[in-house]
Write a structure and sequence with these properties.
- The protein is 13% helix and 42% strand.
- It has one domain.
- Strands 1, 2, 3, 4, 5 and 6 form a six-stranded mixed β-sheet that branches.
- By secondary structure, the protein is mostly beta strands.
Length: 109
């Protein structure tokens, strides 16, 4: 699962269909394929990508590890990447709280 916080919106789950918090509900769970983009400038986005085990039928999710990454676009359109790194405890806790709030039927730990 993944959450995103940007300069234009509060933290939210980055889920494809809104029915499940899982980042990918297709048969490509092992492939990271995010392609963030923006048409504006002075924009920033920060992501927390959480890997874990899940049972989509019964809705438990057990977080194992997480990484944080992102990018910023300045007024001239220059893009500065924020390299992926191990997410700190606060980032993980915050991301899991967002997912728990948006998907209360899921048992997330």
């Amino acid at each position: 699962m993944q959450t995103v916080t940007s300069s234009t919106h509060a933290p939210k789950t980055d889920a494809a269909d809104g029915k499940s918090p899982l980042y990918d509900d297709k048969d490509t769970h092992a492939h990271f394929y995010d392609r963030p983009s923006t048409t504006g400038s002075n924009y920033g986005a920060n992501f927390v990508t959480i890997v874990g085990t899940a049972d989509p039928k019964n809705h438990p999710f057990h977080a194992k590890e997480a990484m944080s990454w992102g990018y910023n676009v300045d007024g001239q359109g220059n893009v500065r990447g924020i390299a992926p790194h191990v997410a700190n405890q606060g980032q993980v806790r915050g991301a899991l709280e967002v997912v728990k709030h948006e998907y209360p039927a899921w048992k997330i730990d």
